[in-house]
Amino acid sequence: MKNLNMSRKFAVLITVFIMTLVVIAALSHTLIGRMADTGEEIYEERLVPIRVLGQIRTDNRALDGYLLELMLTSDIDRNKELQANITDRRNSIGNNLALFNDTFSSTDETVTQQVEKLNKEIVAYLEGTEVVLQPALRNENAAAYRMYLDDLRPVRLNLVETAAAVMDGINQEAEAASIAMQDDRNRSVLTFWVLVAIGALASIGLGVYITRLVVRPVRELNALMGRAGAGDLTVESTYSSRDELGSLTQSFNQMKDNLRELIHQVSQTSGRVAVSSDDLKNNVEETTKATEMVAVTMEEIASGSMRQLTRVKESNDTLTELTTGIHHVSNSAQQMTSLSEGALQKVGTGNDLVDTLEDQLEAMNEKVKLLQDVIEQLDVRSQEIGTITGTISGIAEQTNLLALNAAIEAARAGDQGRGFAVVASEVRKLAEESAVATKQIASLIGDTQTETKQAVATMHVVEGDMRHSVVNVQQAGLAFDDIKQAIEAVGQKVEEVSGAVQEMAAGATEILTSVNEIQGITETTATETENASAATEEQMASMEEITASAQELSNMADEMRQMTKKFNV
Q: Which domains does the chain have, with CATH numbers?
């Protein structure tokens, strides 16, 4: 256990604790399962038979009541109903008896004998009810009642007594099983707590043992570190193990040895540092004089760089203004190019619209011609209808004359021609109405012919206007073509100017970039010169500080030699 690393030691402790929990859990599961099995056994072998036996007793009482009622009534319908109830109860008693025999189990010989007796008495009772039932169904109630009192009632009383004895025996066995289950529970609880105590003691003992294995070396190593911190580097830890504490002890011993060697080397080095600090002081004084000369030269260079930077900035500003103007011209040229392209697109769109309008006008002209032909044909048809209307008007006048003649002839015929006179009168009215309608149609046709002639004249005028519009649209198309060619020529010139301006802008940009680079270099040179001058001044100050530091280093070397003497190496 001592040579195990820390993680394995704690793993052993955790494993023991987990195994203890597993054993306790397994035992608890076993004991609970055993108690559950015992409870299930009590239910199936004790409580179920008691419940079934109670149902048998209930059916027995109901069956006895139905038999007595059957022997007291002579109503045929009621007898049939009672017979059905008796049959149901007898079947229920038989089924429950079979279920009771299947579920009942007992180790008591007396109870077993009582159950056998109960089976025989139930069978005898069911057979007796069948015997009593027959005369009762025939309404021989007196004979049936005597048979009930003499034969069936004693069997029933014995059955009730035996059933009560069986239930008492089963209850006693159930109480005994319950007491046994309670004893098992008490033993299980005791066993559980004993195992818990054993597991807790084992875990505590192992934990204390592992803690001592860890704490004791740590305390020893802490004491050795305290002595080493006080200056005693001769201490040595003797703890040996292959765990982390053993590695820590070895590291402490190695650190102590290295520190002791370091103190020894520091003591030797401090002497050499004191000698070197004196040499450094002399060299710094010579370097300071040379640095003063360099500082004067750097100031002159910085003054010249500042004058050059001023001239470069003036040139840069001039080139910047020139470049800005060139870029402005280039942007304007590009805008003109864009406008020319937009105008060219719009001219193309207008030209397309003119072509479309020309096609539409030609189509409209064709439709106007067709409409003119239709109107002229309508005029011809109107004239034909006028001719037909005149014919109808003549027929109506002749019909009117014929009706008048018929009326005269009917008047001559007297009473025999009265019906014919009525018909002639109606025909005359129809002829007059036809004549009026014909005149109206002739008037409408005349108006239609007049309007048709006006429409034909108007169509001739529209046709001439359409031809004139087509000519105008064609001339507009030619004008758009001329405008398009002119805009294309302007666009080409603008593109040439834009290209030249862009080349000038690119050249000016390159020049400006070069001037900016020169300005940057000049600024950098001036800055670096100033920095060099400042660095020279700082170097001079540093030389003075180095001189002071060299003196201080010499003093510190003396102090270091005195401090190393405090360690016992």
A: 6-222 (1.20.120.30), 258-564 (1.10.287.950)
